[in-house]
Amino acid sequence: MDTWNPTRVIGLDVSLTGTGIANTTGWSTTIGQKNITTLPVQERARAIKTLAAKILLEIGTPDLVVIEAPSYASKGGGAHERSGLWWWLVERIASWESTELVEVPPSLVKKYATSRGNASKEQMVDAVARRYPQYETGGDNNQCDAVVLAAMGADYLGHPITDMPKTHQDALLKVAWPELEVAR
Fold first, then answer.
1. Rounded to whole angstroms, how far apart are CA atoms 122 and 100?
2. Domain count within the chain
């Protein structure tokens, strides 16, 4: 890829009930399905595949997808199914020749948004509302995480969505970015 288009960066926060998706133009949404974990195994597999297909259709073919890495400390049901969805998406996106994929640990998403790697969901929602008012997230923490992920990708490419303090931008230095020619 010779030229990076910062408007073709997608942030992706994977969840069974509410996968947050955002791009760098001020658009965000949530896609999910309730009760996947209660389905019989064959129906559960189909539901995960169908959900993945909906997510992939929604993101299109961006230049860069910045996906939140799994949170191994997360509590609640569905960890196994959420992992299956995450890997299904990663495998598909990684196979697209025109799209780069990078994962960002949850603590770095929080650090970029708030300067603290252990920020609460409420603090993340507040940070996005203040720094990225063009996104109508409705306070949805999944969308807010996706906004931050997209913003990290755009910032790394040299086209930040908004000015960020250096303490926040330090999170970018700890991400294993693919080798990209960026505007610096």
1. 30
2. 1
Look up the domain containing 124 and give its range.
6-174
> Would 115 be classed as within a structural domain?
yes
Cβ-Cβ contacts under 8 Å for 125 (sequence gap 6 or more): 137, 139, 140, 141, 144
What's the N-to-C CA distance of the chain in angstroms? Answer: 17
Looking at residue 179, what is its pLDDT? 80
d(CA 132, CA 170): 19
The rounded distance, in Å, linking the Cα atoms of 73 and 53 is 27
CATH code, domain with 73: 3.30.420.10
* Residue at 144 is within a domain: yes
Mean pLDDT of 121-140: 96
**pTM, rounded to two decimals:** 0.93
Mean pLDDT within 20-34: 95
Is the residue at 182 inside a domain?
A: no
